[in-house]
Amino acid sequence: MKYSYLVLLIWCQTIMATPTDYSLSDNLVIYSEKLGYSLQYRVLAPLNSADIQAAQIMFVTDGQNYLQDAKFDQLLVSLMQQNNIAPVIAVFVDSRDPDDLTINRRHSQFMCNADYAGFFQQELIPVIEQRFRLQFSERKSMIMGLSFGALNAGCFGVLLPKSFTHLAMQSPASDKHVKILAKVYQQATVSAVKMFITVGTRNDNTRAGRAFHRQVVKQGYDVSYVEVPYGHVWDNWRSTLEQIMRWFAPYATTTKAVENANETY
Hints:
Number of strands: 11
Protein name: Esterase family protein
Helix content: 40-55%
CATH architecture: 3-Layer(aba) Sandwich
Shape: globular
Mean pLDDT: 90
Oligomer: single chain
Strand content: 15-25%
Structural class: alpha/beta
Pfam families: Esterase (PF00756)
Order of helices and strands: HEEEHEHHEEEHHEHEHEHEHH
CATH topology: Rossmann fold
Distance between the termini: 68 Å
Largest sheet: 9 strands, mixed
């Protein structure tokens, strides 16, 4: 009898400790009236309805590269299952033409394109709201990207400051475009968006990234800033993904503080 009770107790504890499952969808295609063409995206989401209702929402541009080169979905699942971050719904937006993957539209999409921002606000976000039966405006939300995608995240901070509470900008590029973005911010009203900016110290538009960081801090934005000893490569961007996620979606009961590894320069 004691043996049976022990087996039952272990079995119950195992069931209770089973991590929440998550699912990454296949490519989903959406036609954009704003842009005049179709786009595709994939969604990583908890399967548990309670976690869905508690989830923060993040959109990742160049989503196909974050999945292939960073295995970002696997990192997110690991962090969530270990309670290192709160539940998130991650939308990986592909910058390529769904009908011809050799055509990449990122250069036209990411340069403070008001129609691209309109696609998110008026078309993509409502689809996500309907799919998961949630209100986007009632939770934290993040737009993130790297290189030109980081520039796009910065642009969304001006074009859609009420839609996205957090901007994650990994290696914003190029020098010329970052300087243009800095001028855009100089002319815009300071909003409540929070920024996480990462820059590599080896041929990674470092000087322009530092200058932009100094400017937005002076303007009064809430900014976390990290420099890493890499160039404009995936070793750079992979190295800060966990820190970005702990900043955006810290687990509610954790006592761990997000390290803000500001560099002296």
